[in-house]
């Protein structure tokens, strides 16, 4: 496989005007007829280069005549000398086999339906085409099928028995092409846009799933309205279709007018879905819808610019979810996720720039860094320039680049133009990997407080020397009486070391630093117990209140693990006070009660220069759970009763109460031998509580009967069964996890070809830190065995799951050597895919 470099970008030799495609669908012999009008690119003339993989070419003509052409396993090339002058029409007929396409890229079949996934480079598995995002064409598609529903992008144009035609007036790159055909039912609605146009909305699902669409449809309507109200962006077709597909490598795909969703990210009902699922569905529907402007109308010039659409769209979906629910709670959840996924990536062998400079397989760069750090960059930009300039800049970007394929430079330029600022230094966030460490000291004299910040970023693979980043550090100052003397203030740090002074202060205030997590850094602050307790009680920034509690919990666990010190009353009392404070949102209190994950503790220990012992981490975290259960025993039953949300509604209020109730139940179960959890398991009318009760029981080492009855109740529902597989592995004791996972791979409902099921088992195994790092190395071996089996079928999912091994350098010599052995075994597998080869090679370093 070849490495592709950003610096080598060159425009294509040919642009596309129009594309006509006809699909005669058949499981093993689909015919695809294409008619493409090309025009030469006068700025870069040359051969006609078309991508194509796994295609059987039946015919190729230019302007109606057969043409001399070269064909390799990846291209069809027509020499410039053999091309007519000026525009020409290329026609081809190819045959493909969707039924045997297990990679789920291109045209494939899932549960009897035809569907496509073309991002990033899947269109080349459908027909010969310049499959690159800067080539945009107007598509007309005819589908011929035995199945009743036939969909493609854009607006429906005509249809008859066994055929349908679609026309998409908006020029688009091939990665946004989509086609679906199946025996599907639609859950339908309408939306009237800000200019009064009516848009038909449909969510297409398999029979039996039609009662799980209402929430998704409402989320779509809310997203459409929000994008009009907040960004002024209106939808631009007569119809917006969503299709739920069971076999899908990622969450969803924003194809123009025809979003395709992993069914786990669109279907939701109270009985079968947890609050977390409802929240995810709402967020992903919004994300894919928002791509219509940030990604589709304005797309990426090349795949190195992926963060241009993904970082911005994640930022937009985060803002939306904050507006729909609670900004404070959402921000804490975002940071938890960022630290768990992106910091982990940024501090290991897979660290890369938000805009990478090279790749072998672009699918390996749909990462937390591109998505989540990409979103953090947008948040920082907004904080630095202010809300008004942010929206002005966005509007300028939309106006200036509508219909274009652009770069990060184009995005930044819009903000330079509206603010008059030079954002060159800020733009370095896209080209420097690694998480900055930020430390701070304070000095106080004569009514002046000086904060001195120092930043440094550790080396990452291929980038030894790091420069200071531009950091918006939001702070607040609080007087000893608890009043805020300096409200939210953004300090703009650009140097390695920089001081900021606040004058005319009557008394020395307490500083609240990095409010709302205003920059994606690791804050290293020596903070004494008194200051921390003060901030816990008085900080007006909810993120920092949570953060103080988090630090207390982490320090407590680290001291238990490394020194055998029992928890201090500081921590226990603070937690009790917080939990009992009914002025605080239950969702927020639930987040305060949740202990840091084992993986988080392992990284914290490693950062502090200690080799983490996964067994000690597991045992001490369990010990702390027992200590909390006992210390809080007088308030737990009451908290449990008071947070009964009543009839299920998947809104912020109900889900917040249930989150607190389930977190409480998990501790309560350690005190009452599972009585409350068993009762709830039997009586719950919603999955949040049923699964919450089951998890509480399993986490306490009981609940096998309930696990069996859960199976008996839900074996027919594939999404609930994913939970059944996942839960028992996720909470298994370290020495049992690999064994349980292995047994489950023999279960008749285990299907390695279904990415959701594969992830339910092996995602849960790698997420069970103690179990994955059990001393015998059984989990390492089991995962490697299955990655080797999956790779020939589905390289994309295999490569992604290799990330389980990315933290190997944290651990002791024995574990390092066991992991390396498995990685080398994977790498030594004959015919290993390029995707997996690239990932394993990078992880090994
Ligand atoms: N833009 C979509 C990315 C995506 C994808 C990428 C590679 C392989 C399969 C895929 N399915 C979807 C999803 C998104 O970010 O909106
Ligand atoms: Zn996206």
From TrEMBL:
Residues 531-844 form the Peptidase M1 alanyl aminopeptidase C-terminal domain. Residues 29-176 form the Aminopeptidase N-like N-terminal domain. Its cofactor is Zn(2+). One of its GO terms (molecular function) is zinc ion binding. Keywords: Aminopeptidase, Hydrolase, Metal-binding, Metalloprotease, Protease, Zinc. Gene3D superfamilies: 2.60.40.1840, 3.30.2010.30, Neutral Protease Domain 2 (1.10.390.10), Peptidase M1, alanyl aminopeptidase, C-terminal domain (1.25.50.10), tricorn interacting facor f3 domain (2.60.40.1730). InterPro entries: Aminopeptidase_N-like_N (IPR045357), Aminopeptidase_N-like_N_sf (IPR042097), PepN_Ig-like_sf (IPR038438), Peptidase_M1 (IPR001930), Peptidase_M1_dom (IPR014782), Peptidase_M1_pepN (IPR012779), Peptidase_M1_pepN_C (IPR024601), Peptidase_M1_pepN_C_sf (IPR037144). Its EC number is 3.4.11.2. Residues 434-525 form the Peptidase M1 alanyl aminopeptidase Ig-like fold domain. It holds the Pfam family DUF3458. Residues 217-429 form the Peptidase M1 membrane alanine aminopeptidase domain. One of its GO terms (biological process) is proteolysis. It catalyses: Release of an N-terminal amino acid, Xaa-|-Yaa- from a peptide, amide or arylamide. Xaa is preferably Ala, but may be most amino acids including Pro (slow action). When a terminal hydrophobic residue is followed by a prolyl residue, the two may be released as an intact Xaa-Pro dipeptide. PANTHER family: PUROMYCIN-SENSITIVE AMINOPEPTIDASE (PTHR46322:SF1). Belongs to the peptidase M1 family. This is Aminopeptidase N.
């Amino acid at each position: 496989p070849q490495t592709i470099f950003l610096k080598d970008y060159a425009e294509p030799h040919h642009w596309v005007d129009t594309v006509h495609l006809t699909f005669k669908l058949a499981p093993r012999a689909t015919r695809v007829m294409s008619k493409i009008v090309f025009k030469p690119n006068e700025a870069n003339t040359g051969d006609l280069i078309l991508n194509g993989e796994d295609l059987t070419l039946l015919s190729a003509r230019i302007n109606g005549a057969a043409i001399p052409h070269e064909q390799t396993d990846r291209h069809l090339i027509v020499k410039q000398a053999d091309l007519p002058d000026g525009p020409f029409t290329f026609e081809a007929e190819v045959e493909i086999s969707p039924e045997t396409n297990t990679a789920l890229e291109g045209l494939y079949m899932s549960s009897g339906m035809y569907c496509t996934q073309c991002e990033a480079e899947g269109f080349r598995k459908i027909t010969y085409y310049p499959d690159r995002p800067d080539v945009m064409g107007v598509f007309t598609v005819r589908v011929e099928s035995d199945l009743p529903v036939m969909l493609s992008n854009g607006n429906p144009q005509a249809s008859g028995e066994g055929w349908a035609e679609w026309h998409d007036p908006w020029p688009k790159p091939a990665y946004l092409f989509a086609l679906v055909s199946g025996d599907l039912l639609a859950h339908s609605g309408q939306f009237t846009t800000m200019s009064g146009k009516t848009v038909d909305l449909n969510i297409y699902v398999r029979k039996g799933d039609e009662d799980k669409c209402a929430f998704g449809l409402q989320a779509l309507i809310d997203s459409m309205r929000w994008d009009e109200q907040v960004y002024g962006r209106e939808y631009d077709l007569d119809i917006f279709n969503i299709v739920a597909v069971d076999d899908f490598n990622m969450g969803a795909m924003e194809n123009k007018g025809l979003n395709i969703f992993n069914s786990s990210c669109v279907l939701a009902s109270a009985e079968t879905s947890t609050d977390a699922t409802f929240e995810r569905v709402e967020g992903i529907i919004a994300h894919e819808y928002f791509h219509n402007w940030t990604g589709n109308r304005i797309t990426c010039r090349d795949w190195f610019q992926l963060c241009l659409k993904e970082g911005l769209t994640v930022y937009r979906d985060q803002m939306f979810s904050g507006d729909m629910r609670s900004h404070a709670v959402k921000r804490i959840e975002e940071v938890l996720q960022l630290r768990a996924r992106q910091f982990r990536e940024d501090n290991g062998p897979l660290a890369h720039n938000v805009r990478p400079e090279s790749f072998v397989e672009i699918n390996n760069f749909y990462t937390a860094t591109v998505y989540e750090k990409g979103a953090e960059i947008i948040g920082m930009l907004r904080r630095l320039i202010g809300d008004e300039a942010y929206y002005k800049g966005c509007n300028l970007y939309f106006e200036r680049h509508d219909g274009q394929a652009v770069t990060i430079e184009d995005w930044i330029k819009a903000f330079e133009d509206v603010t008059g600022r030079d954002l060159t230094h800020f733009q370095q966030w896209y080209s420097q990997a690694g998480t900055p460490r930020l430390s701070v000291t304070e000095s106080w004299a004569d009514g002046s407080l000086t904060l001195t910040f120092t930043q440094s970023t550790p080396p990452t693979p291929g980038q030894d020397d790091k420069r200071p980043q531009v950091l918006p550090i939001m702070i607040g100052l609080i007087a000893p009486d608890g009043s805020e003397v300096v409200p939210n203030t953004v300090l703009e740090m650009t140097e390695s070391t920089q001081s900021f002074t606040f004058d005319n202060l009557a008394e020395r205030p307490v500083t609240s630093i990095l409010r709302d997590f205003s920059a994606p850094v690791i804050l290293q602050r020596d903070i004494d117990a008194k200051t921390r307790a003060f901030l816990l009680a008085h900080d007006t920034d909810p993120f920092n209140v949570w953060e103080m509690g988090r630090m207390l919990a982490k320090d407590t666990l680290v001291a238990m693990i490394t020194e055998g010190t029992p928890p201090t009353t500081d921590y226990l009392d603070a937690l009790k006070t917080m939990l009992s404070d009914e002025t605080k949102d239950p969702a927020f209190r639930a987040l305060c009660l949740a202990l840091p994950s084992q993986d988080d503790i392992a990284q914290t220990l490693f950062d502090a220069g200690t080799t983490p012992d996964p067994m000690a981490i597991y045992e001490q975290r369990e010990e702390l759970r027992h200590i909390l259960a006992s210390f809080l025993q007088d308030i737990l039953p009451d908290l449990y009763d008071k947070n009964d949300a009543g009839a299920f509604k998947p809104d912020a209020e109900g889900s917040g109460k249930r989150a607190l109730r389930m977190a409480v139940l998990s501790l309560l179960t350690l005190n009452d031998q599972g009585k409350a959890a068993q009762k709830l398991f039997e009586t719950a009318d919603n999955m949040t509580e049923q699964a919450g009760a089951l998890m509480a029981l399993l986490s306490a080492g009981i609940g096998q009967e309930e696990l069996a009855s859960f199976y008996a109740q839900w074996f027919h529902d594939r999404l609930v069964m994913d939970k059944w597989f996942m839960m028992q592995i996720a909470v298994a004791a370290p020495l049992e996890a690999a064994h349980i996972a292995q047994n489950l791979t023999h279960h008749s409902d285990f299907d390695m070809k279904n990415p959701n099921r594969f992830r339910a088992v092996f995602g849960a195994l790698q997420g069970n830190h103690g179990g994955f790092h059990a001393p015998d190395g059984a989990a390492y071996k089991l995962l490697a065995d299955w990655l080797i089996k999956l790779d020939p079928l589905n390289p994309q999912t295999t490569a992604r799951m290799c990330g389980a091994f990315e933290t190997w350098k944290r651990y002791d010599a024995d574990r390092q050597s066991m992991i390396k052995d498995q990685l080398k075994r994977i790498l030594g597998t004959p015919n290993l895919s390029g995707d997996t080869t690239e990932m394993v090679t990078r992880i090994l370093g």
